[in-house]
Amino acid sequence: MAEFRITSDDDGFDLRKLAAALAESQGWPRDRVSIWENRGGGGVVVTVDDALLTHHEPDPLTLPMHTLSDVHKACELLRRRDPSLRGVDFLALRDEAARFFSAGWSIADLLHALSHRHDGAPWPRGEGYQGIEWLEHRLRSWKTPSGDIRPSVSQETAQLRIVGRAGLPDDIGMPDEAPVAPRRSATPESARAAADDARRLMRAGTRTTSDGLGHRERTAAQITRPGGRRNPGPGDPR
């Protein structure tokens, strides 16, 4: 683990926030960076996983395409990697791929889209699954009904990683699988029948004593039936 300290002569400066902003600007995952206050010497101490400080050459398949030359070279690589593209006119392939590259997709993202549907199911391969129509059909799965480009597989992974670090649920913003049916209220007849059943069960499970019978009669006397008729009490004539 690499470690460094951040100090400041200004006591009102939030050094923890500065350290967090520094880690974010470097693209360091927060779960691999630790920040805590240095109570003895002041300031904050930041520890970083050594692997994050090792320089790695970026994978050319994961780099964004910004220029026409980049798009041209990327399409040449796509044709070499995907046999179904060899019969596709190069200009048509370049025009179709350029839209996805302009949306931030990489070569690896396009290769994934050409081999998998948006839901993760693999596309069929072999004889008959070639040509410009098959290319457009596969890429149409990665477009919205209005024709906009959906997030690529790497973009979705990055979004889920950010959501996970923030502690938010994975399905945030996703529509419900099925609408929840509204609950209906019980009719008065059903409610009264359920109450009668509950009273019978309570009576069956309660020991009958003289005190219990007296309490039951006093309680029953307070119940008013439909029509204003009240149950007879203990001293009322039957």
From TrEMBL:
Chain intervals with Low complexity compositional bias: 181-193, 225-238
Region annotation Disordered: where it falls in the sequence: 167-238
Protein name: Uncharacterized protein
Species per Swiss-Prot/TrEMBL record: Nocardiopsis gilva YIM 90087
